[in-house]
Amino acid sequence: MKEKLHTDNQAINGVAVLDISQAPTRITPIRECNRDYGNMKQNSFVSSDRGKAHKRHFTAPSHIKRKMMSAPLTRELCGEHGIRAIPIR
Prior knowledge:
This protein is of the alpha+beta class. The chain is built from 4 helices and 4 strands. It has a two-stranded antiparallel ribbon. Strands 3-4 form a two-stranded antiparallel sheet. A hairpin with a 2-residue loop joins strand 1 (11-12) and strand 2 (15-16). The longest helix has 9 residues, at 50-58. The termini are far apart. The model has no long low-confidence stretch (mean pLDDT 76).
């Protein structure tokens, strides 16, 4: 029995048949694909889960909250006071 060649708009048993000539000729490695994503994790030890971040923020001890709730100073104020950031109260 001879098999027919199908065009890309035909289907066999409800499954679309694709033309192989339209397939990509080069598969990009994973490291090249990752360049497109701007929000990749920089530190694998820090979770990106919102719930975990929320819990750690509100259950942190006061010496860690002081560090989280600090604001950087401008260059003029940094030179005047000799510190780079001030904790917010």
